[in-house]
Amino acid sequence: MHNHFNGLKTAGLFGAIFGLLLALGWAASVYFGNSSFIWIFALIGVAMTFYSYWNSDKLAIKAMHAFPVSEAEAPAMYRIVRELSTKAGQPMPRLYVSPTEAPNAFATGRNPQNAAVCCTQGILQLLDERELRGVLGHELMHVYNRDILTGSVAAAIAGVISSVGQMLSFSAMFGGGNRDNDNPGGAIAGLAMAFLAPIAAMFIQLAISRTREYDADEDGATLTGDPLALASALAKLEAGVSRAPLAPTKDLVNASHMMIANPFRAQDISRLMATHPPMADRIARLQGMATGYRPN
């Protein structure tokens, strides 16, 4: 069990985002006078979740222009990942390298049998082997904890909510909807939901991502048996990203939640809009693991 109740937090956040989807379905049902919308949106949510989950191994790899590497090309990566995956009793994932100087790493794939782990050239140059082992342990735990599924579901549902909210908003602006509705209060509430639900869904999706990072830190440090190695790596990554940030293109923004460190400049995002917890908090928790003290 995670000492910071991250699993419980994630379950609560998922309940909230699915509740938003159903509430938006209700809003559309009220606005258009057709109760079938709530079921249509539920089905759309399931379909989008399945599609995103099945194709999750392609998104970040494509966004980072990563290419597969052999053991001869990346011996340290292979040695570390083979050791840790064997220790965890899991299959060896595919290994990739991204040709960018920005230091980062990510794992992707719908399950341990179809997983991939990628390091950028920048992180391979920045970290020593002990720190790299801490990072790769973190990434492997994202796979073993099914965090790719978690992130795909959250992103898909948030996307559906955003699209439906925009549809309702445009319909209202251009005079759509049920003009003969006998419940004007419900229609107003539904329209308010159409504007507010996408914003709320985005914040919930980001909160889920931050919670899963804490879990991967803790579980990865347990797998490697060396929380201070990951803490040292995170400190270097924070400095490295500030020196070589990536431009927040659409593809990279969509894939950034998979990376161990937010790849963008700190001033490009607020704390509420971040896909990752503050590095100082993550480092403090890892240092607490090493000393037996767990900060709240």
Automatic annotation (TrEMBL):
<keyword id="KW-0479">Metal-binding</keyword>
<dbReference type="InterPro" id="IPR050083">
    <property type="entry name" value="HtpX_protease"/>
</dbReference>
<keyword id="KW-0812">Transmembrane</keyword>
<feature type="binding site">
    <location>
        <position position="138"/>
    </location>
    <ligand>
        <name>Zn(2+)</name>
    </ligand>
</feature>
<dbReference type="Pfam" id="PF01435">
    <property type="entry name" value="Peptidase_M48"/>
</dbReference>
<feature type="binding site">
    <location>
        <position position="142"/>
    </location>
    <ligand>
        <name>Zn(2+)</name>
    </ligand>
</feature>
<dbReference type="GO" id="GO:0006508">
    <property type="term" value="P:proteolysis"/>
</dbReference>
<feature type="domain" description="Peptidase M48">
    <location>
        <begin position="73"/>
        <end position="289"/>
    </location>
</feature>
<dbReference type="InterPro" id="IPR022919">
    <property type="entry name" value="Pept_M48_protease_HtpX"/>
</dbReference>
<comment type="similarity">
    <text>Belongs to the peptidase M48B family.</text>
</comment>
<keyword id="KW-1133">Transmembrane helix</keyword>
<keyword id="KW-0482">Metalloprotease</keyword>
<dbReference type="GO" id="GO:0005886">
    <property type="term" value="C:plasma membrane"/>
</dbReference>
<keyword id="KW-0862">Zinc</keyword>
<dbReference type="GO" id="GO:0004222">
    <property type="term" value="F:metalloendopeptidase activity"/>
</dbReference>
<feature type="transmembrane region" description="Helical">
    <location>
        <begin position="148"/>
        <end position="168"/>
    </location>
</feature>
<protein>
    <recommendedName>
        <fullName>Protease HtpX homolog</fullName>
        <ecNumber>3.4.24.-</ecNumber>
    </recommendedName>
</protein>
<feature type="transmembrane region" description="Helical">
    <location>
        <begin position="188"/>
        <end position="208"/>
    </location>
</feature>
<dbReference type="InterPro" id="IPR001915">
    <property type="entry name" value="Peptidase_M48"/>
</dbReference>
<keyword id="KW-0645">Protease</keyword>
<feature type="transmembrane region" description="Helical">
    <location>
        <begin position="37"/>
        <end position="54"/>
    </location>
</feature>
<feature type="active site">
    <location>
        <position position="139"/>
    </location>
</feature>
<keyword id="KW-0472">Membrane</keyword>
<keyword id="KW-0378">Hydrolase</keyword>
<dbReference type="GO" id="GO:0008270">
    <property type="term" value="F:zinc ion binding"/>
</dbReference>
<feature type="binding site">
    <location>
        <position position="213"/>
    </location>
    <ligand>
        <name>Zn(2+)</name>
    </ligand>
</feature>
<keyword id="KW-1003">Cell membrane</keyword>
